[in-house]
Amino acid sequence: MDEYSSDIAFTPIVKEIQTRRGSRDTYRYMEECGSWKTTVTPELAAYLAERDSCYLATTNGQGQPYIQHRGGPKGFLRVLDEHTIAFADFSGNKQYITTGNLLENDRAFIFLMDYGNRRRIKLWGRARVVEDDEALVAQLMPRNYRARAVQAILFTLSAWDVNCHQHIPVKFSASLVEASLGQLKSRITELEAENAELRAALNGAANNPSN
Description:
- The protein is α+β, with helices and mostly antiparallel strands.
- A seven-stranded antiparallel beta sheet has the order 2-1-5-6-7-4-3.
- It is 36% helix and 28% strand.
- It is built from six helices and seven strands; from the N terminus they run αααββββαββαβα.
- It has helices spanning 12-21, 24-32, 42-49, 97-104, 134-140, 174-207; strands at residues 53-59, 65-71, 78-81, 84-90, 107-114, 119-130, 149-163.
- β3 and β4 form a beta hairpin.
């Protein structure tokens, strides 16, 4: 059993490299101060609620890794309890690589990126596919979302960590850009109307010099 929650990623060889490259003392201090969180905290729950996209990594029985994008409306990732995150798995290209991998190896990893705020969170855990629970799938299905859910994926959290923001490019979602542009367009319309009124007033004053 791991001594620290971060040992899920900091294997002996990783720690050896950290020692050789000078970062082991920093991470040893982190471990002794509590290491990584192992439950869904309010901070993590709030972050998950704002995500409309994530990447789910799995590995097959031969050790071949695979990353699959998962997306939906904000809130498609649901917190069921402090250890469990779940989402409805929508119909796609029917390759079923993630599903097959999880049947051979339930270790999984979720990577969550917030480009607008340059923040990324990593989740380690184990995942399983639930194919025969219509009530659970219906519970996880986002309201009014035009997609067909074929199964559910339940992710049991082992540990999570927040990466530094270095080298993350700033990108904004189309909906956020559209909302900002909408506000700008409204303001431009208001200013154009105000400008037209001022021009009309000036023209009126020029045509009536006695005033």
